[in-house]
Amino acid sequence: MNKLSPVNRYSLWHYAALVLMLIVLTVQALPSFFGDHPVVSVSHHSHQGLQNWLKTHPDAVSEVRYDSQGTVSLITPDISQQQNVQQQLKGTLGPDAEITLDYLSAAPTWLSRLGAEPVKLGLDLRGGVQLLLWVDTDQALAHQAEALVQGLNLWLDSQHLPANATVNTKDNTTVQLPMLSASDRSKASAWFTEHYPQWRFNSAANGWQMTDTEQDAMCHQAVRQNIDILRKRIDALGVAEASVQRQGKDYIRIELPGVHDPKQAKNVIGATASLAFYALDATSPKRLYDAQHNVVPLARHAILGGEHIIDARTSVDEMRRPQVDIRLDGPGGETMLAFTRRHLGDPMATVYREYQANEQGELVANERVINVATIQSALSDRFRITGLSSPEEARNLSMLLRAGALTAPIKIVEERAIGPTLGADNIKAGFSALAVGMIGMAIFMMLWYRRFGWVAIVSLVANLMMQVGLLALLPGAVLTLPGIAGLVLTVGMAVDTNVLIFERIRDRLRAGASLANAIDTGYRAAFSTIFDANITTLISAVCLYAVGSGPLQGFATTLILGLCASMISGIVGTRAIINPIWGRDRRRAVTI
C-alpha cells in the first residue's frame, strides 16, 4: 500500500531557499529606497582654492569627503544648492578646474560593504543630456578609396607604370587612372578583380566605382563601429548607465544620465581623433604646421596609421612634462620596426587629425604636427609621444586613442538637456503612483479576502523588493519612468495571481470541501491559468525588449522581472505562509 504524500506542506529546504532569496534581494533593494545626496566633485588640482572657498562659505555644503585619488566631494542639501555651489566654484577656481556634478547614495555604509548598490536611474529620472549625432559616412567611403589608391599606386610603381591613381573629389567613391593606355588599364582591371572585386569599372565615370551594395554595407559598418567606439569613450568617462543606439540610417542617439555639465562629454564624444606617423620629405606638397607654427613638409603617405594603436597611457618624462606611452599591435610594430631600422638618424613626425564643423556646418579635417623627433634607435611596438602642451591634452589624447579612432567623423546636430529638478519630480511622481497603487490594492484585498488579505499584502511587498533587488543585480539595467510604470503594472498582475488562487479556494469551500482541501485544490487549479497568462505576457515583453530601445527596453525589463517575481511570490510565497497556518484545517463551511 503506497503512503500518500501530505498536502499543504513544504519541506525545510523550500523555506530555507525562500527566506535566503528574500533576504538577499531585500538587501540589494534597500539602497534604492534611501535615495541619494547631490554632490559636487572637485579634482585634487584645485585643493588650495577650494579650501579658501569653504572657509568663506561654511554653510554651503552639508559634508566634505576625500577619496584615495584626492578628489573632494562636497555633499549639498538639495539639487538647487548643488547647482549654486557649482556655479560659485567655477567663478572662484577658474575655467580650468575640474568640477563635476554627481550623486552619492544615502544608504548606510554597511549595505555598501555587503555589495548592495542602488538601482541606476535613466535620463528621465536622473536628468542629464541627450545628444543626436550625424555620421558622415561619405568620409568613410573616401578613406576606403584613399587606402585603395595607396595600394594601387604601389602596384603601379612595381609594374613600372605611371603611379597616378587619384580619387574623384566629386563623389569620393571613384578611382581614376587617366594616364594609362588601354592595355595597361586591362592590367589594372585584373588587379582590381583580384584585390578589390567589389569595385567595378564604370565607363561613364571613366574609373572604378564601389558597387551600391558594398557602399551600403560599408556605411552600415561605419555606423556600427562608431557606436562601439563611442560606448568605450563613454565608459572611460564613468557614465556606466549611458545609452548609445542607432537612429535611422546615419544617426546615433546618446543619453548621458547624471551629466549636467556636458562640456567634457561633448568634447570626447564629438572628437574624431587619430594619429599618423610620417617621414619628412622636403619635395612633398603635403605641409602642416607644428605647435610653434613652423611649416613641416611631410611625405605623401603615412608610415603608420592610428588604427594600429591598441593602448595609450599618460605619463611624464624626466622633466615632468606630459607624454603618452603608445603600444601597437603586431603588424603595426613590425612596420614601425622595419621603417626605423632603415631610417636611423632621420626625423619622424607625429600628426594629430580631428574633424571639426566649420561655419557652414560641414565637417573638415584639422591636422597638426604634435612633434618631430629624430629616430635614434629602432622602435618596435612600444614608444612615447612628447610635445603635448598640457596634462589635460595628454589625458584626452590617450583616452581617445584607447577607445579608437572613429571610422567616420560625427557632428552633434541636436542637444537636449533634462534638468535634475525635473528628474527628481519624475521620481517623486512615479513612486507616489506606485505607493498609491499598492495602498489601494492592499485595502481591497483586506476587505474582500479578510484573513487571506494580509497574506496578499505580504506577497505584494515581497514582490516589490524582489523586483527592485533583481533590477539592482542585473548588469546594465537602468530604471526609467516607463520602468516605474512596469513596476506598477507587475504589482497589479501579482494581485491578479492572488485573486485567481483565492477565488478557486472559495469555489471549493462553496462545494463543501474542507479548508485544507480547498487550499490544495485551489492552488493546483489556478496554477495552469496563472502560468499560461504569465508566459504569454513574458513572450510579449521579450519581443518588446528585443525590438525596442531606450525607455521601451526599460519598461520591458521591469515587466520581465516583475513576471518572474509575481510567479514566485504569488504562488510559492503565499502558500509558504498559508500552509502552516490553515493548511491542515479540516473544518468545512469556512469563509475567507
Structure report:
- The chain has 16 helices and 23 strands.
- It has 592 residues and is an alpha+beta fold.
- It has a 4-stranded antiparallel beta sheet with strand order 2-3-1-4, with helices on one face.
- The longest helix is centred in the C-terminal third of the chain and has 33 residues, at 515-547.
- Residues 1-5 have low confidence and may be disordered.
In short:
Helix content is 50%, strand content 21%. It has helices spanning 12-33, 47-56, 79-93, 109-113, 123-126, 137-158, 182-195, 212-237, 263-270, 330-342, 391-403, 420-449, 453-473, 481-510, 515-547, 551-582; strands at residues 36-42, 63-66, 72-75, 99-105, 120-121, 128-135, 166-167, 174-176, 199-202, 207-210, 243-247, 251-257, 274-279, 287-289, 295-297, 304-305, 309-316, 322-328, 347-357, 363-374, 382-385, 410-418, 478-479. It has 592 residues and is of the alpha+beta class.
Q: How are the SSEs ordered, and which strands pair?
A:
Blueprint: H1 12-33, E1 36-42, H2 47-56, E2 63-66, E3 72-75, H3 79-93, E4 99-105, H4 109-113, E5 120-121, H5 123-126, E6 128-135, H6 137-158, E7 166-167, E8 174-176, H7 182-195, E9 199-202, E10 207-210, H8 212-237, E11 243-247, E12 251-257, H9 263-270, E13 274-279, E14 287-289, E15 295-297, E16 304-305, E17 309-316, E18 322-328, H10 330-342, E19 347-357, E20 363-374, E21 382-385, H11 391-403, E22 410-418, H12 420-449, H13 453-473, E23 478-479, H14 481-510, H15 515-547, H16 551-582
Parallel strand pairs: 5-23
Antiparallel strand pairs: 1-3, 1-4, 2-3, 6-12, 6-22, 7-8, 8-10, 9-10, 11-12, 13-16, 13-19, 14-15, 17-18, 18-21, 19-20
Helix pairs in contact: 1-13, 6-8, 8-11, 12-13, 12-14, 13-14, 13-16, 14-15, 14-16, 15-16
